[in-house]
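Much of the work behind modern protein science is quiet bookkeeping, done one molecule at a time. The protein below has been through that process, and both of its lines are reproduced in full.
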Amino acid sequence: MIAKRHVMDKKLVLSVSDSELVGKKFEEGNLQLDLSGDFFRGSKIPESDIAKLSESAAMITVIGKKSTEFFIKKGIVKRENVKSIAGIPHIQIFRL
């Protein structure tokens, strides 16, 4: 998995994606997943570090089968909350 940390308004925003998806765009009708920008161009990070970062993140964007499965197995998100665009699963998590 590829992850990147961002700080917005002093809050941690985390992007996590399957490595093979970074740099690509996926479209379905008028919906789009665009992983071609800098937001997703992070580094390979161990799962244990991603789990720890996710605990303090105010927002997490997760894209890809491996990445979404990781967050489901960790109990961070429920399977029924995973959406899909062009067959690519994704999750957005917001914490107030």
About this structure: The first helix runs from residue 47 to 56.
